[in-house]
């Protein structure tokens, strides 16, 4: 049996390991932490259900991923800029809320169990030189940072709810959010500029949500993170780069979990079928990465009106999810706008590989 070595046991590394191990490969994962999800602090994440044609659960099945973890569908969502509210009610799930961390119901623990059940050898507390592994899945690279976030997770008796807050007072060029799902809650703010003032924006966000919702947080725990982006399908020597270290995050809102799992699946497919990883990943991700450059450009250009023009367009569309889907797949208007957006974004983010 052939052996594949993976550096990092995040969602992308575990996704690759699950698929390889199901096809008679020996898989060794080197994970420097003592458990998966140890840095996530039990926070909640909304995984978008509009960027792909397939529903998230159906795509998981296609990628041989079982949903043995918390994955709550949400059809309703409120977006506010503190002056106007947009209440979305969709015919199908707009997103799924998952839990991260070491809790047994988390995405991380669910994927770990699937990997172990398939015979994957996860070597916790160990690392390896990049040159000695086949797949690198070590998380974001700070050199390519484009956004930072800070949040607090907690237990609560509040009903399930999802609220997005977009204005430059609470999250400069970014957004804040409140998620509650089955007794767990999360408040966070994500900045795309003004990183040095993250604590200020985070406090404003917490104060805003606490003033408007009776959350009664119990056992609060803070977490933080950042997003990495690259518009290039990345390899380092002979090593395949997947997930955040490959830059597979959305430049508009920083979503990356779905991309991470998909990139792990594509990496495994390239090995199993002896196909070129850059070509396979490029065919799937390049349109989405290009789209996100244009989307971020448009988002920042309309910041002065607290995003009401953009949100009204989405809200008043016949099918908001279908409308959003078109803006994640490099449509005709995005292709026309791309040269101007790329020029602006290279100036705006000189550290990114664009």
Quote the average pLDDT: 94
The assigned structural class equals: alpha/beta
What strand line-up does the widest sheet have?
6-5-11-12-13-10-14
Q: Looking at the structure, what is the overall shape?
A: globular
Low-confidence parts, pLDDT < 50 over ≥5 residues? Answer: none
> N-to-C terminal Cα separation, in Å?
39 Å
Give a written overview of the molecule:
It is a single chain. With 354 residues, the protein is an alpha/beta fold. It has a domain at 146-226: D-Amino Acid Oxidase, subunit A, domain 2 (D-Amino Acid Oxidase, Chain A, domain 2). The chain is 33% helix and 25% strand. The protein is built from 9 helices and 16 strands. It has helices at residues 11-21, 56-62, 107-117, 198-212, 257-272, 277-301, 308-315, 320-326, 332-348, and strands spanning 3-7, 26-31, 44-48, 71-74, 76-80, 85-89, 95-99, 121-124, 135-136, 145-155, 161-165, 175-181, 184-191, 218-228, 235-236, 239-241. The strands form 3 sheets. Strands 6-5-11-12-13-10-14 form a 7-stranded mixed beta sheet, with helices on both faces. Strands 8-2-1-9-16-15 form a 6-stranded mixed beta sheet, with helices on one face. Strand 1 (3-7), helix 1 (11-21) and strand 2 (26-31) form a beta-alpha-beta unit. Helix 1 packs parallel to helix 3 and helix 6 (277-301) packs across helix 9. The longest helix is centred in the last third of the chain and has 25 residues, at 277-301. The two termini are 39 Å apart. The mean pLDDT is 94.
